[in-house]
Amino acid sequence: MAIARLYSNRKDIPDWLEIGVPTYTGGEGSIFFSRDGQYAIKIYHRQRAVLTKRQLLEKITLLGANLTADEAQFLCWPLALVADVDGNECVGCVTRRIPTPPYVVLMNIMLTPKQAAEQFRAGKSWANYLQIARGIARSIAVLNSKGCAHADLHFRNFLVNPSKSDVVLIDLDGLVVPGFLPPQVAGMYGFMAPEVVIGKSTPNERSDRHSLAALILYTLLFRNVMRPQVTYDSDNEDNDARISWGKEAIFSEHPQDRRNRPRMLGVPLFQQGALSYHILTPALQRITERAFIDGLYSPDRRPSAREWINALSYALDELWRCSYCRLHFPYPHWIKPVQRRACPLCGQRIAAPFPSVLLLYEPRSKGNYIFIKRYLVMSSGWRLFADVLDSQRPPMSRRDEPSIGHVEWDDKRKTNRLVNDEAVVWRARLGEDGSDITVSKDASVPLHPRTTIHFGEGRRLLVIHE
Fold first, then answer.
1. Which of 164, 210, 346, 421 is most buried, taking the most CB atoms under 10 A from its CB?
2. How do residues 406-435 score in pLDDT, each as one tens digit?
């Protein structure tokens, strides 16, 4: 065992750690684990361990000193720096050790549809990938809130727990802060923004937005939606990559340019198909188009991490479970007629009874509401939580709180009914005849099209769409 002496350590971090042999050695350095198993230590190779690197690490460590517990769960931030090992001066940093298992590298569960199928056979669902994608966005939102960009976002820099959908971003030793921390790396082909690939810009928060979008879509569709299908330089592989991911980069589902279109696009995943972004919810489709069509060569038009969080969170309330493959997917309520709706994973047609689709409206002034382009997909057993109706609360902020309503299937009338589980009396205007009713605790309202449900002053209201 060797002794690593630390400095710039937080008060809860010891002044020295015992380390053994390296568990991994890469281009930048070697990774060690502390004897107690709590920490990971990265020691940089001597030829890379210049004074500038030490100074940059000191600044990065300082930036993470005031992370809250909620923020720290998404980021494996340096907790201390290494002064020397057994008296030999070196450059290194210390982070908490992420246990593997249960954590795995993100790439290992989503690189190919085959890897996703293995997760499905192990009991995971597409809903797990949706939550993982949201965790990815949340980690970047925390970084952005500190004024930082990562500069090297890709599927090897995230560790995920597939069972709990927890996400941790690693390799935070190369952060970028304008005027404070310069870029140290450019990134990885496949996730680098075109302006970085062609040398027009260095990595920054706007280029991170492109990398984030590419990661999220890869996680949801199990393919890189920017992958080139055309060879531009058959004699020089690196130059071909620079052209493909740089000046000739194009979204694989661009409506006017089909050169990168996958051959089996739109065919169900389990039939060796390629998932289209059109399987995603309307909000996710819109934000995808902003990222890869409007914002591909216009960085300022790219959606932020916070916008991705909202769209991904709202999508959790639009999921439907296939009766055949038993996996969740976004219910395609935008496809008409309903007979055309099918599971994008196995291809099974969705059969009656169909779920109810509700529109969410937000109060703007007394008596006036505006549609916020958010949908709820309800079927028997679905539960309504208070955060859905509260415009002041972050999406999906519920913490083991009771539901305020649930859905039951009325077999006699062949309709879904929303049952009131709270003491607050609701008011509803029925779509069938326009009559007004009150819905007290344990009473219910039929979810017929055009029915409007008021839940009380200051809360959002629901309008049944279908």
1. 210
2. 999 999 999 999 999 999 999 999 998 899
User: Which residue(s) pair with 375 in the sheet?
Assistant: 359
- The answer to whether residue 339 sits within a structural domain is no
Q: Where are the alpha helices (DSSP H) in 152-270?
A: 194-197, 205-221, 237-245
CB atoms within 10 A of CB 260: 20
CA angle 197, 198, 201 (to 5 degrees): 80
Give the structural domain span for 436. Answer: 352-464
**pLDDT range class, residue 248, cuts 50, 70, 90:** very high
* Tens digit of each residue's pLDDT (9 = 90 or more) over 342-364: 999 999 999 999 999 999 999 98
Name 461's bridge partners: 361
Residue 16 sits in the same domain as residue 78? yes
Q: How far is CA 64 from CA 31, 222, 432, in A?
A: 21, 32, 57
CB-neighbour burial class of residue 19 (10 A; exposed 0-12, middle 13-18, buried 19+): buried
Query: CA separation (Å) from 459 to 105, 111, 363, 365, 464?
Result: 41, 42, 7, 12, 16
Q: Is residue 169 part of a domain?
A: yes
Q: Which residues of 273-301 are buried (b: 16+ CB within 10 A; e: fewer)?
A: bbbbbbbbbbbbbbbbbbbbbebbeebee
Same-domain pairing of 146 and 287: yes
CATH of the domain at 227: 1.10.510.10
- Give me the helix-helix angle, 205-221 and 282-289, nearest 10°: 140
CA distance 216 to 144: 17
- Asked if 333 and 375 count as a contact pair (C-beta separation under 8 A), the reply is yes
Which DSSP category does 402 fall into? P
* Token pair for 40: 């990971």
Report which of 280, 276, 284 is spatially closest to residue 251, judged by C-alpha positions: 276
Residue 276 counted as domain residue: yes
pTM (two decimals): 0.94
Residue 77 lies inside a defined structural domain of this protein: yes
Torsion angle (degrees, nearest 10) of CA 344, 350, 355, 360: 30
Which residue is it, tokens 């509700």?
A: 358
